[in-house]
Amino acid sequence: MVRRKLSARYARSEDFDVAKDKRSDFRRLAENRTRHTLDMIRKLENLSNRGNYDYTDDEVQKIFGTLKSALEVAEGKFRRTSTRTPNFRL
Question: Which among 74, 66, 64 has a CA at the least distance from the CA of 34?
């Protein structure tokens, strides 16, 4: 387990468990960012309403192809095998 002394700024005498802190930070941020991403996907779903929007199948394929590619890159970064995140333009 990784441990380090807290700086004097925090005025604590006990060791600070960095690994536990990093883990809780990851979980908190991952949950918030995943929740936000899912909300954005739901908003993207709203664009499927043909009564309000006009789009082509090519545009839809481009949107979802870009999203799939970005997800593959993000997953690759967790596995340390990633390339660059794609840019998107219709």
Answer: 74
